[in-house]
């Protein structure tokens, strides 16, 4: 086949620079790895596989800071998803992935294919997906363009998940000007499996078949990995060719076919992997590398839906709903028969070979012949300069911002209407949260909860992250992200197990951005060790900028917990009048980066307070013990908007009220966002036992009433608000803001 450029022309014209391959890397590949000039196809493969999105060449040194093992971890980073033991021979499988640039360019398809991709990661491990979550960060709802992007992003998530029959049970949505030109769409999926069905992405056994299954290959998504590994600007704001197009109905068929093969004919299968970022090249090269094998592929055999596709296009296409299998020789027809019943292509496109060479043929010609390791293991890690941003030092010298609150009731009403705090039911109602009828708690609760059929146990799951805190202090902000996930899981009555993450940052070539990445990961890693919640999967999404303006550093933490007995599920709503109300944790003057500060000043500034992680952990574990003992009737974490917002949220759908003595707090502290706090309600009969277990970590502040009023007695003010009126403000704010003002 005629290549688009000769190797000599590539060296001279340097098209690889547009594919995020540097001149240093190109020369290293030519001079050190190959001993010759790579041809056009080979150069494209290197560009994709050496992109940050696939290789983590800049972030690997930082990622090594994460703990990734404990007594329950069965599979950590390195496979399609992480796997954790949940007893009874079962395992929970979960992972999160970002789809930020595609969603910014084409919100509907970008979000939809983000969901599709993460679901394939789950069932490629042998697990059936049982729940989806998301973490969405948008610009302010001040113009029709952002309103449309929000609507289309949510519709993309809802349509794909609903068609797949996977409930979306939890998530978060925030709004801030820093995301105006670069949205964040992080998708998480949770699956369930028998441990004996665990699969891996590996290709071994000389002569075994490399089989392509699923949808046909088109030209959509070509160089999607490199698109996600470069700065974003108005220039590429319409780069839709790098955005994939999804078909959830085909993915449903693909999932069922793959799970049938895995669960009923595991002896036919050597390995399986999703064709995600970088398409065929990433899945095939990574499987060969994992198996220390060579591989030979004939691209003429790849099912294609477009004519005259080049080898370059076939290999780098990120068309959706495709998987790559390594199948034992002699079982190719058996595998084809399974996929034929689901009306899906299943084609042998190559073989595992002896040695370690990666060889491709197209139109009867050899178009690639390189060592497998050159694509996967020989990537040049890029050392990065670091510099503490001047704003961090300036914050240490600046006077502390202290709000003055004369009317806490009025302030609470205003906060409840802020887009990040207000009810997002107008968005989540587009998701089928009850499909498969295993959802115990869905959106609106601290964590989504899924029942495990056949057992009286369940899984709790949450996504959490607040870029404002990380921007002000990456290390403490990173700790806060993990802490919020921990308290959400505890609040649901679950034992925290492990986390997945999406690390969303700006251009790592900026020393200040890399400093943010390094120090926030350090903070997250510290919290993970204290809480014993290792990082078992995740991804890094860098270059989240628009016209040189970076987003806030926004690590998203997805945590899963185990509920050993569903009788111990704790609701987020205080429904029992007469129960005692306790505040777990100490409230400080923590306004830097708070919703209150953003609302009153239009910006964020200041220093964050250090977090006593061990104290939060110990209080959380003792609280969980009381939950298991049946001594807690409701619990809710305190996060955005502080204690005032948390109390109101706990009562909106409960037809109850509260009368609380908070005279140890000022009106301003009602809206402080000190990390690691929870509100819990306890039946009066269990007061003594609860007090003994929690000790000084729990403060009795009042009682649940049947008045449907929130009555708070503060040090310097009184608050007496009708909850029906507060709920109206809370529930109507976002629908109004989403309506076009044009």
Describe, in plain words, how this protein is organized in 3D:
35% of the residues lie in helices and 24% in strands. With 742 residues, the protein is α+β, with helices and mostly antiparallel strands. The chain folds into three domains: 69-194 and 437-566, 2-Layer Sandwich (60s Ribosomal Protein L30, Chain: A), CATH 3.30.1330; 199-378, PurM-like C-terminal domain (Phosphoribosyl-aminoimidazole Synthetase, Chain A, domain 2), CATH 3.90.650; 570-742, PurM-like C-terminal domain (Phosphoribosyl-aminoimidazole Synthetase, Chain A, domain 2), CATH 3.90.650.10. The strands form five sheets. Strands 8-10-7-11-9-12-13 form a seven-stranded mixed sheet. Strands 23-25-22-26-24-27-28 form a seven-stranded mixed sheet. Helix 19 (474-491) packs parallel to helix 20. It is globular, with a radius of gyration of 26 Å. It starts with 6 loop residues before the first helix and ends in a 5-residue tail after the last helix. The mean pLDDT is 94.
């Amino acid at each position: 086949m005629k290549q688009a450029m000769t190797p000599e022309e590539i060296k001279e014209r340097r098209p690889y620079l547009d594919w995020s391959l540097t001149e240093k890397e190109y020369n290293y590949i030519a001079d050190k790895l190959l001993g010759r000039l790579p041809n056009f196809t080979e150069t494209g493969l290197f560009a994709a596989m050496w992109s940050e999105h696939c290789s983590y060449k800049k972030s690997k040194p930082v990622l090594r800071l994460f703990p990734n093992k404990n007594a329950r971890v069965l599979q950590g980073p390195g496979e399609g998803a992480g796997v954790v033991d949940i007893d009874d021979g079962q395992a929970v499988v979960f992972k999160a992935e970002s789809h930020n640039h595609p969603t910014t360019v084409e919100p509907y398809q970008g979000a939809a294919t983000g969901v599709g991709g993460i679901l394939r990661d789950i069932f490629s491990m042998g697990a059936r997906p049982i729940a989806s979550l998301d973490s969405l960060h948008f610009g302010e709802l001040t113009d029709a363009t952002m309103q449309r992007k929000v609507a289309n992003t949510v519709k993309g998530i809802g349509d794909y998940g609903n068609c797949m029959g996977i409930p979306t049970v939890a998530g978060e949505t925030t709004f801030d000007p820093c995301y105006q030109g670069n949205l964040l769409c992080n998708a998480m999926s949770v699956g369930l499996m028998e441990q004996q069905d665990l699969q891996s992405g590996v290709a071994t056994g000389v002569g075994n078949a490399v089989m392509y299954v699923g949808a046909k290959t088109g030209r959509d998504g070509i160089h999607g990995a490199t698109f996600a590994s470069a700065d974003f600007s108005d220039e590429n704001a319409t780069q839709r060719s790098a955005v994939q197009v999804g078909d959830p109905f085909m993915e449903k068929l693909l999932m069922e076919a793959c799970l049938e093969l895995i669960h009923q004919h595991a002896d036919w299968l050597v390995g399986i992997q999703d064709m995600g970022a970088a398409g065929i090249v990433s899945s095939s090269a990574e499987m060969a590398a994992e198996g220390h094998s060579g591989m030979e592929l004939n691209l003429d055999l790849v099912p294609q839906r477009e004519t005259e596709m080049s080898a370059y296009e076939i290999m780098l296409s990120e068309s959706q709903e495709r998987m790559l299998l390594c199948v034992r020789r002699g079982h190719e027809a058996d595998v084809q028969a399974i996929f034929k019943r689901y009306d899906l292509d299943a084609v042998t496109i190559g073989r595992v070979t002896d040695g370690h060479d990666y060889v491709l043929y197209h139109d009867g010609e050899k178009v690639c012949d390189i060592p497998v390791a050159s694509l996967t293991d020989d990537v040049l890690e890029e050392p990065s300069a670091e510099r503490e941003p001047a704003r961090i030092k300036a914050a240490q010298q600046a006077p502390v911002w202290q709000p003055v609150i004369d009317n806490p009731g009025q302030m609470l009403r205003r906060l409840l209407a802020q887009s990040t705090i207000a009810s997002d039911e107008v968005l989540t109602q587009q998701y089928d949260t009850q499909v498969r009828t295993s959802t115990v708690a869905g959106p609106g609760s601290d964590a989504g909860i899924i029942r495990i059929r056949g057992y009286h146990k369940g899984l709790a799951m949450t996504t959490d992250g607040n870029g404002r805190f990380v921007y002000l202090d990456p290390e403490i902000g990173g700790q806060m992200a993990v802490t919020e996930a921990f308290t959400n899981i505890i609040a649901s009555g679950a034992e925290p197990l492990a986390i997945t993450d999406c690390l969303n940052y700006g251009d790592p070539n900026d020393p200040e951005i890399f400093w943010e990445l390094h120090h926030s990961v350090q903070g997250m890693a510290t919290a993970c060790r204290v809480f014993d919640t290792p990082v078992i999967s995740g991804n890094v999404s860098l270059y989240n900028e628009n016209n040189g303006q970076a987003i806030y550093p926004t690590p998203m933490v997805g945590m899963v917990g185990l509920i050993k007995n569903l009788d111990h599920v704790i609701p987020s709503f205080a429904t029992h009048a007469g129960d005692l109300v306790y505040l777990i944790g100490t409230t400080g003057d923590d306004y830097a980066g708070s919703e209150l500060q953003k609302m009153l000043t239009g910006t964020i500034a200041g220093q964050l307070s250090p977090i006593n992680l061990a104290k939060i952990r110990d209080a959380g574990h003792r609280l969980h013990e009381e939950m298991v003992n049946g001594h807690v009737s409701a619990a809710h974490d305190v996060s955005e908007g502080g204690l005032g917002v948390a109390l109101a949220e706990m009562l909106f759908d409960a037809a109850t009220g509260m009368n609380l003595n908070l005279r140890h707090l000022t009106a301003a502290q009602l809206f402080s966002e000190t990390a690691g706090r929870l509100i819990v309600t306890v039946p009066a009969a269990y007061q003594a036992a609860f007090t003994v277990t929690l000790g000084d970590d729990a403060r009795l502040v009042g009682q649940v009433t049947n008045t449907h009023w929130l009555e708070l007695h503060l040090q310097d003010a009184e608050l007496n608000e009708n909850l029906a009126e507060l709920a109206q403000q809370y529930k109507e704010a976002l629908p109004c803001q989403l309506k076009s003002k044009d």
